[in-house]
Amino acid sequence: MRKPKTFIILLAAISLLLTCCLVGCGKEQEQDTGGSSDTVHTVVDMAGREVTVPNKIDKVFSTNPPGAILLYTLDPDLMIGWNYSLGEAEKRFILPQCHNLPNLGGWMAKGTCNTEELLKIKPDLIIYMGDTDQVAAHLANNIQNEVDIPVVVVDSDIKNMEKAYEFIGKLLNQEKQAKTLGTYCRETLGEIQSKSKKNYRG
C-alpha cells in the first residue's frame, strides 16, 4: 500500500525539525561578539528584499514556530520568546533555559503578536520564515513598518533548509553551526526520499 505523498513530506519535516533540535542542543555556540550595536549593514533576504540589519545581533524573534525552531537550533541564547506556550512534551526536547521564555504570539494564520511586550524587549531582528514570494515580501514589509524592527524572510521549503541555515547562520555569525545543521538536513532528507521511493516500489 502506498503512503500519501503529503504524509511522507510531513513525516520528513517533523523528523528533521525534532532531530535538528537535539543536534543543536549539543553544539558549541560560537557567536562573534565583536562589532558595534549601532553599526549596520544591508543584506538581501531570501525573498530578494534589501534589509538594513545591525552588525551585532543579540536578540531575535520569529514570527512563527518554524522560524523559532530554526533559531533555537542555531543559538537558543538569541531567543526572546515563543509563538505559543510550550507543552510538557515539547519541553523534553528544549533546553531548560528556554522553557520560560514568554509567549509573544506571532504573525501566523490566526495568531496575533503581542507587539506591546515585543517592543519592551526590542529584538534586534525578526525572522519571517515562510514562502519567498511577493506576498511574503509584502507581509514582511508590513511587520517591519509596524514595529520598526528589521525583518528578514527565510525560505521554509524543506528542500531548501540547507540554504535557509546558510543565510541565517551568516547573518547571526553562526556559520559553522549552520553548515553542520544544513548538511545534516540535506543528508537526512536525501535518506528519507530514497527510502520513500523504495516503499513506493514495494
Automatic annotation (TrEMBL):
Fe/B12 periplasmic-binding domain residues are 59-202
The answer, when asked if Signal is one of the entry's keywords, is yes
Q: Which UniProt keywords apply?
A: Signal
Q: What is this protein called?
A: Periplasmic binding protein
Which first-to-last residue range defines the signal peptide? 1-26
**Which species is this UniProt entry from?**
Syntrophaceticus schinkii
- What protein family is recorded? Belongs to the bacterial solute-binding protein 8 family.
GO BP of this protein: cellular response to iron ion
